[in-house]
Design goal:
The protein has 10 helices and 12 strands. By secondary structure, it is α/β, with parallel strands linked by helices. The chain folds into 2 domains: 129 residues, Rossmann fold (3-Layer(aba) Sandwich); 145 residues, Rossmann fold, CATH 3.40.50.720. The chain binds NADP nicotinamide-adenine-dinucleotide phosphate (NAP).
């Protein structure tokens, strides 16, 4: 029986990146829908859960994508509310590559340092990737500062992650050089998750930070988010600190992403969100 993945995107035009990875992860057919909302996803769930006999339901799966984390979470919640008994299929949430990207980055960090008791800064952490990275770093025991150009946006993101995962992230403004310097004080880990093509940090702002051990930049589009580290860096030492560029950890992100898609077709009751995807990433890295 064919493995069918429904890509349910909260944006009007479904993301092609996620479609490609869905095929590479093993789906035989990917059906994409745009503009998916909690109020409209019900009929799509019905079509997925009522069509195949119990042993074959694992061959249908749902993948929630889109650029807005809150909208993706609401669609996932609505999907789960529609399931009952064995009338369910596996589902994954990865708005803007949030969970898979954050999981790959934080799993690499954990390979180098024990995060318990450390201070981690997620710079421009209000987007999907930054929010999820903040959660994963906090769940590993770090004190996490999540920054934004505007403190109210940071507060909103931290509150959303507290509601969803019961983690306490510290919101901070980093919109001007003085505020940025303050945010970076005492940081052991720095993960930049700013929008594509936006430089957040000059090399002179991080190279002499005495406590900083590891830096990662998720932005692959020039100019990079952190000046002075290379796109391809993977545990590359610069100024006495370990550096990871977006492609340096991005190839592992893609492996994790593909493994998640494959996992969806193993049974009909898998739910993949931040904790499950992070656990898988750590397991994959440990097995190397
Ligand atoms: N390496 C990989 O494998 C991989 C995979 C997926 C995504 N990515 C990359 O990961 C990064 C984060 O993705 P995302 O979807 O979470 O990002 P996003 O939502 O597009 O942006 C994250 C934050 O960047 C800040 N920002 C936007 N424009 C800015 C500007 N002009 N100056 C300063 N800050 C600005 C905003 O924060 P405030 O408005 O709150 O300041 C925004 O919430 C992106 O660069 C994306 O391309 C990498």
């Amino acid at each position: 029986m064919k493995q069918i993945l429904f890509q349910l995107d909260t944006d009007p035009i479904p993301n092609t990146f996620d479609t490609v990875v869905a095929y590479d992860g093993g789906a035989d057919h990917v059906s994409c829908r745009g503009n998916v909302k909690p109020s409209t996803v019900g009929t799509m769930v019905d079509g997925a859960v009522f069509t195949r006999p119990p042993k074959q339901k694992k061959n249908t799966a749902l993948f929630v994508t889109g650029s807005n984390m809150g909208e993706g979470e609401a669609v996932l919640a609505s999907i789960r509310n529609h399931f009952f008994g064995d009338f369910r299929v596996s589902v994954m949430l990865d708005s803007n590559g949030s969970n898979t990207t954050a999981a790959a980055a934080v799993a690499y960090v954990g390979r180098h340092i024990d995060l318990r008791g450390t201070r981690a800064v997620v710079l421009a952490g209000t987007g999907p990737v930054g929010q999820r990275a903040g959660v994963m770093l906090a769940q590993e025991g770090a004190e996490v500062v999540l920054s934004s150009r505007r403190v109210d946006r940071a507060e909103t993101a931290c509150e959303a992650m507290h509601r969803r995962f019961k983690v306490d992230l510290i919101p901070a403004a980093a919109g001007d050089p003085a505020a940025l310097r303050k945010v970076l004080e005492g940081a052991n880990v720095l993960l930049a998750t700013g929008a594509a093509g936006v430089q957040l940090l000059h090399e002179s702002s991080w190279r002499d930070l005495p406590d900083l051990e590891i830096l990662l930049d998720a932005n692959a589009t020039p100019p990079l988010g952190i000046e002075g580290i290379d796109l391809m860096d993977r545990a590359t030492e610069r100024h006495g600190k370990l550096c990871y560029g977006a492609i340096g950890f991005g190839s592992f992100k893609l492996e994790v992403h593909r493994a998640c898609i494959a996992k969806l077709f193993e049974s009909n009751d898998v739910v993949l969100d931040a904790p499950e995807i992070f656990a898988l990433a750590k397991e994959m890295l440990a097995a190397r």
